Fold:
Amino acid sequence: MKQHPNIDDLERLALYRHTLRPDEVLALAEHVRGCSFCRDTMQEIDDLSRTMDGLSDERIAQETQRILRQAISEPRGNVILLHVQPETADSGPAPFALAAKGEEAQVSFHPVATLYSDDGRTLLRILHERERESYFFQLMSEFMDRVPHALLSAPGRIPMMTDVDGAHRVADTEIDIVQIASMSVFYALDRLRTGPVTTNELGTHDGVVLASDDSTLQLRAEGDVMRVRMRWHGAEDATPRYVGITSKDGQAVGAFENGEALLPLRSIPDDGVLLMY
Structure:
């Protein structure tokens, strides 16, 4: 992680402004004003304070620290950071309903937030489905061909993959507002159709090797998991951070560490698709 020369002053200004004397606040603000990094980061923190009005100071402090950590970290390829756009007052507190087919009961959703990318070309709509006690995520983008099986990454939980329609549902006990406000979206950098791969094939010495223009993957079974070893031939600044697999039977995601990731699988069905993010 890179250490920015003004990060200590920026942290004092962002997190402890209310405990400082007015002259100290002015001096710190003047010191960091000439730094575009500091200006942009403080603007994001100020926006956060407005859009998360009503949350506890502790929650806002947690999210502020997340922004500071993100701001001084190495740049990452293939990530669209999303920001909270709160519901407007005239949107009304009442939920809306989606009509089901036939005589089934209507499903009631309560709008939570719309997250949007800096360029405005990707939106993530978040709704709370009361009857199922779950959050419903709907990803919309100008790049609709990349929306199926995009990766939703939130701190503190396993990444989530959208389905073929760019949607995902998760129990409301598994994720909170800070994680939602910190969410990032990854489009798949590479997709490989695997065809059926059996446990016996994965258990051999060399396992199964898959290749595309950008990557070579070796898949091997180790106990109850599958180890994925990756060699990336694509752009250096877009080296994948995650690997996922999806089929009609479900999906799984693992994070690459030193070019290796683990997936909780021992075989791959015939409709399996391997994705890297």
In short: Confidence is low (pLDDT under 50) at residues 87-103.
